[in-house]
Amino acid sequence: EPPAPGGQGDLHYWQLLTCMSCTFLPSPPVLRFLRFHLDRTEDHFPASEMAKYACFIREALGKTKGRECVPSLEEILVLMQRQEMICTVHCPGAPACSVAISSHTTAEEVAQELVSRLGLSQSPNLFALYEQSRRREQPVGSATLLADVLTRFE
């Protein structure tokens, strides 16, 4: 049982657990214990801030993949609030699009969303995302997590 359920220290614990759960998967024995802990928290403290974090963490664990980079400061700040990051994608011949992404969103998912938004789903062309810096421009692999791409820019 937490010493002060819903207290400031407890909130920081849940925020840290959220960041960790979106960054890497624990080993199977730890994962089993973590899922038990999330269930117990939701049962003992329903409708609390802790239960909301437990639900968010459970959903994140179902999507978490190995990360190339540690989370950026922006990503940590939005994770602490259980929100998504807003990513701006510049499209040739179209205005920039804002896309909400999570720690688990891949380049392919964003490309599919943009194709749908721009009404290009019937187009025979293929679409990809590129990252551009002062020195180079390169395609982003379809399975690449966009949070890692953004972290490299930070």
Strand and helix order: HHHHEEHEEH
Task: Give the termini separation.
Answer: 38 Å
| Number of beta-strand segments | 4
Quick one: CATH superfamily of the largest domain? Phosphatidylinositol 3-kinase Catalytic Subunit, Chain A, domain 1
Average residue pLDDT: 89
Q: Determine the CATH topology of the largest domain.
A: Ubiquitin-like (UB roll)
Number of helices: 6
- Cα radius of gyration in angstroms: 18 Å
The biggest beta sheet, please? Answer: 2 strands, antiparallel
How much helical structure, as a percent, in the residues?
40-55%
- Give the uncertain stretches in residue-range form: none
- Pairing-aware structural class of the strands and helices? mainly alpha
Second rung of CATH, namely the architecture of the largest domain: Roll
Spatial order of the strands forming the largest sheet: 1-2
| Percent of residues in β-strands | 5-15%
State the shape.
Answer: elongated
Tally of distinct domains:
2
Please identify the top-level CATH class of the largest domain: Alpha Beta
What's the SSE blueprint?
Blueprint: H1 8-23, H2 28-44, H3 49-61, H4 73-80, E1 85-89, E2 97-101, H5 107-117, E3 130-132, E4 137-139, H6 146-153
Antiparallel strand pairs: 1-2, 3-4
Helix pairs in contact: 1-3, 2-3
List the defining traits of the structure above.
154 residues; mainly alpha; 2 domains; two-stranded antiparallel sheet; 6 helices; 47% helix; 10% strand; Actin_motor_Myosin; RA_dom
Protein described:
This protein has 154 residues and is mainly α. The protein has two domains: 8-66, no CATH class; 85-153, Roll (Ubiquitin-like (UB roll)). The chain is built from six helices and four strands; from the N terminus they run H-H-H-H-E-E-H-E-E-H. The protein has a two-stranded antiparallel sheet. Helix 1 runs parallel beside helix 3 (49-61) and helix 2 (28-44) runs antiparallel to helix 3 (49-61). It is elongated. Residues 1-80 form the MyTH4 domain.
